[in-house]
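Notes to self, Amine oxidase:
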Amino acid sequence: KPGQPFARRAHATLLSSGHLYEAHIDLAGRSLVGWDEVSDHEAALTIDELMSAGDLPKQDPRWIAAMAKRGITDFKNVLCLPLTVGPVSDPALKGRRLLNVPCVDTTGAGNNLWGKPIENLVAQVDLKSRTVLSVTDLGVVAPPPLTPSHAYADSGKYRKPPKPIEIMAPEGSNVKV
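result:
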């Protein structure tokens, strides 16, 4: 009814030290109604997790050795971009916060970070333990000599320009606006 107070509740999801919590809050009463740890789900990734996960492979001896096979020993132009793993069926990995971490060489990247991927090399990291669980190296693939550009002005370097197109409707348009 108009003028009558009404219930206002909020639900918050919190992540602390790898543990996921749900809080139920009574906004009108300014009180915490409930607080539960959630053990069978994972929270969405935070920006801090994504940014820090990219640094983990750069400290792993297996990954460093795989990069050396590719002739890369200075990582200042290497950007590692974590990707979610998806559902995990291996019981040994249950409860871990996993990401696959492929990397790219940003030398000369300009407007295309993904232009020089470091192919066939992916680290799998666990955000909870802050460790690299595995490094998958399927062999060296030579990178492109130049980083491809997404700029229209550069497109002629990669393909021939299209031939002119002429659109005609000698009996009138089929479309009315």
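- The two ends are 48 Å apart (CA to CA).
- The CA atoms of residues 15 and 46 lie 9 Å apart.
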